Amino acid sequence: MPTETALAELHALADPAKAAEMAAYHKAPRPYLGIPVPLIEERVADWRAALSVGDRTALAAALWETDIHEARVAAAKLLTQARLRPDGPAWDLICHWTQSFDAWALADHATIAGQKRLLADPARIDTVEDWTQSPNMWTRRAALVITLPYAKMNHPKAGDLAIRDRALAWAETYIQDRDWFIQKAIAWWLRDLSKHDAARTRAFLDGPGTALKSFARKEAARHLA
């Protein structure tokens, strides 16, 4: 599918009034079309059904490069599925995107696509660890978001627990960063973990987590008795 065709389908759904609201809400300086995510997902479902994995990845790359908010959401959605073979090019593309993240919404859509690829090949955690040293706060935050599935596992295996502990170690190094989004990401990770591994969550909060901002500590402990 030509990129121009995909963009034309998105522009046909545009709502200028909602676009102005979204621009004010997201604040990131890029074009907005005002399309709700469910409508984007409907278009993407049709595209995915008609395209090979390689063509999906190529379209995702082209849509992201437009810098249109909804096109970038669609790009991430094109790669958000558990079974994607071969998935090396998709993983490389997602990793490339992380370096230019500049706002939470697009970062989350793209990183959720990355979660599927990390679960498919946990050895990719070594690449994720490099993100924790990035000068870009959104890239560092993505290291926690992409590992969230490991906080949610009910019956993790040894390798899963190793990644869980690795992510907690990253979270500990992030505590000194007082940015709201970083603190929120730590709290998000711990809150999800608390529903599956309360002991690890309490140990973190009673240890390095004492230095979290108060709102983050409260959020992290929300589900603890």
What can you tell me about this protein's structure?
There is one protein chain. By secondary structure, this protein is mainly α. It is built from 14 helices and no strands. The chain has helices at 3-11, 16-26, 37-50, 53-65, 69-78, 88-98, 104-120, 125-131, 137-146, 148-151, 158-174, 180-194, 198-206, 214-220.
The rounded Rg comes to 18 Å
Order of helices and strands: HHHHHHHHHHHHHH
Describe the main β-sheet briefly. none
User: What form results from the Cα inertia axes?
Assistant: globular
The secondary-structure class comes to: mainly alpha
Q: Which percent bin holds the helix content?
A: 55-70%
How many strands?
0
Strand proportion: under 5%
Number of helices: 14
* Distance N to C terminus: 52 Å
Mean pLDDT: 96
Low-confidence stretches: none
What's the helix and strand layout?
Blueprint: H1 3-11, H2 16-26, H3 37-50, H4 53-65, H5 69-78, H6 88-98, H7 104-120, H8 125-131, H9 137-146, H10 148-151, H11 158-174, H12 180-194, H13 198-206, H14 214-220
Key traits:
225 residues, mainly alpha, 0% strand, globular
Describe the structure in brief.
The protein has 225 residues and is mostly helical.
